[in-house]
Amino acid sequence: MDLASSGISETSVTDAPDHTLDAIHAAAYPIDTHLDSLFLSRVAGYDFWKGDWKANRRSPVVWLIRKTSPRGRNRPLSDHVSGPDFLAGGYGGACFSAHALWENLIPAPLMDPWKNWVDHCSYVEAVVVQSNGKMRLARSASEVRAARQDGQCCAILSMEGAHMLGPQGAKSQVFRLDRLGEVARAGAAYLTLNHFSHTDISEAGYAPVNPWRRIEGGGLSAFGRQVVERCIDVGLLVDLTHTSTQGIIDACAICIGRNMPAFASHGASRRVTQGTETRPSRHLDRAMSDEAIRAIVSTGGCISVILAPYFLQNTYYPDGKPNMDADLAFVVAYYEAFAQQIAEMKIVEDPWKHLSFGSDFDGGISSLPTGMQSGADLRKLTQAMMDAGWPAQRIIDVYSGNFLRVWQRVRP
């Protein structure tokens, strides 16, 4: 998408009236590359399009998420993006990931992780039908662009955690590789290699629940390399959000060899998050090291910035408790510091072509940025970008252009 087709010039950004905000936001067609709202509504029985967040069943998964998630002071701590919020916020689309949360704790075959993928696909398709034409399922970047042309928003499938492919071990490797083809045929944009567990594919980088199951060298296993190769073969982006630094480096080396981009659907920079604070914090492990960022950018890929303040700053209140809240101006400044970090690596011409938007709203995050109460407030982030003097093309690139570019490269 370019400025000519959107009818907006870069000079119209700063000090623009409200109608220009709406025009830029619409041209940007924001695509959240990791939104957990449909996972939350599926397991708790919420009516996504009704948007009242009334659960019709008890869910131990939702209980666990809310019990263990970091808790900022801003509210709400969950129930961030209902169907009405999605429409009111002017979302162009979102990648709705399937999860197998318990299977991070209890390995297959005691629980069948593949069923979570099958159930999720059916549920997302039902939500699309229930939208009465407002939303369509998009299986490629070109289908996203067609939906935008028709005035519709998009649901995009994705899988968070390769442990969902089936039981671990040598006996299951062939059919797990075959299942990657099924995931791609369903239209998924990406496979996240890890979630919250080390697997026989790759070592996790953040909060693994099975720390004893390490991989020699800390990266991809021999089978893990086959998984990455197979993802490229079938047209799946390799999402490295929860993977160890060495795993990211290993995967990106394969992507470079295949001339394909790697991706992070909801990440952060460890250096930017740490800032000037010297005390260590476990949440810094969620962010990516300089080496990991360099590896992803070197493939031509992009990194979506998570919008959870807890993972964007390492600061503390006078009583020693971590500060888990930050406003939208802080988020915009974080993007700018991240872009500066990439620029200093001197490996790409334009660092802004390698940053995208992946909030992780309705996931296990601290809270939304201060100034937002739900996804209906997404235009406030666009306004903060404009207030910082961002040109229109940068806003378009970060919100959707960069993601669509890398997705189209793996699935022409």
From TrEMBL:
The EC designation for this entry is 3.4.13.19
**What are the record keywords, sorted?**
Dipeptidase, Hydrolase, Protease
One GO molecular function term of this record is: metallodipeptidase activity
Q: Which GO terms describe its biological process?
A: proteolysis
Do you know which PROSITE patterns this protein is assigned to? RENAL_DIPEPTIDASE_2 (PS51365)
Among Pfam families, the record links this protein to: Peptidase_M19
Q: Which InterPro entries match?
A: Metal_Hydrolase (IPR032466), Pept_M19 (IPR008257)
- Top EC class, one word: hydrolase
Q: What is this protein called?
A: Peptidase
